[in-house]
Amino acid sequence: MKQSPRVLGRPRHDDNAKPTKELVLETATRLFIKDGYKNVSMDDVAKACNVTKATIYYYYPTKGELYTSALIAMMKRIQLHIKQILEQPTAFKERLEQLVEIHLSATLDIDMKNFMREATINLSEQQLKEVHASENEMYKTIEQAMQSEMDKGTIRTGNAQFFTHTFMALMSVGYFKDGEGNRLFQTEANAAKEIIDFFWLSVKKSS
């Protein structure tokens, strides 16, 4: 039987290789992390993937769509790691400390504030909604854990959403560097301990 022609513009698929769309997204994410939105072109992504620019545009018609997908994929990975850590059978304070240490270690080279700032400037309203929805899902994972620990009596009763955003704000302090590039904390482990000790004072139950 004569093989039907491929759809025009559809990239060839190698069953033994990583799916092209996945390769493009992972490569683009690395480039966006390293150089920022403005300094990465679709041609840069194509060259890094060793594919044609037409291939990139087949999967992601605009750079905004590629950036949106990169942000969402990154947040989903972070959310998965958060969930895995918070579901461990250890003390809640220990889980939070581990979460901060691992998160800081894994995202030390990722400036999430800059990612979101560039998203606000360069993405469409609909794309921003998609990004913020993914961000909210990430926060919800922590919020649900906070509420669960309240119900168990591990921490005091309060607003789980407020606790979550306070926790995330404190965690961001772990990235702080002064004007000369010196970090506030020497190690991620030290940052995690200091941050959680401080946070725990506000959420622990009164004796």
TrEMBL record:
Record flagged with keyword DNA-binding: yes
Transmembrane segments: none
Residue ranges of DNA binding: 41-60
Domain HTH tetR-type: 18-78
Keywords, sorted A to Z: DNA-binding, Repressor
Pfam families tied to this protein: TetR_N
Listed PANTHER family: ACREF/ENVCD OPERON REPRESSOR-RELATED (PTHR43479), ACREF_ENVCD OPERON REPRESSOR-RELATED (PTHR43479:SF11)
Name of the protein: AcrR family transcriptional regulator
